[in-house]
Amino acid sequence: MAEPTVPTIRNAAKAVVLHDGRILLQRAHWSGQDCYFLPGGGQHPGEAFDATAHREVLEETGLDVTPERLLWLREYIGANHDGDPSDHRIEAIFLCRLDSDPHQLGGHAQDEAQTGLEWVELEKIPGLNLLPHGLRDLIAGLTDEAPTRYLGDLA
């Protein structure tokens, strides 16, 4: 008899980086599909979420950003979405101010699935294979006055 799967919780921070009506996205090939992700990644023990967002954006994109405010707190519970029942993620998604040249892209520690970086016009977001899909309309409708929201278990 197989041992039951013990869920682990993985904390991460993601960044919404805007410039001239565009958002910075990672292009990726993941799970057999071409898609896009927000830059960001796993939190280290003892590291604050905003520091995670800063570090991950710098590593993956080469850009220096300052997380200015929390936009959304997202969970993903794999068992609720026909996914791996041990997969439980919590992501803090920050609106970040760009503090470096937006055209100097190229991080030193890109994700394995990452195939590139792209500044994408906000109005194109709903038609992209941006993962998770539940973020597409939120990003496309983003304004400076967007309130902080707990998104719950969002796939």
Automatic annotation (TrEMBL):
One of its GO terms (molecular function) is hydrolase activity. It comes from the Bacteria. Its cofactor is Mg(2+). This is ADP-ribose pyrophosphatase YjhB (NUDIX family). Keywords: Hydrolase. Pfam families: NUDIX. Residues 8-143 form the Nudix hydrolase domain. InterPro entries: NUDIX_hydrolase-like_dom_sf, NUDIX_hydrolase_CS, NUDIX_hydrolase_dom. CDD domains: NUDIX_ADPRase.
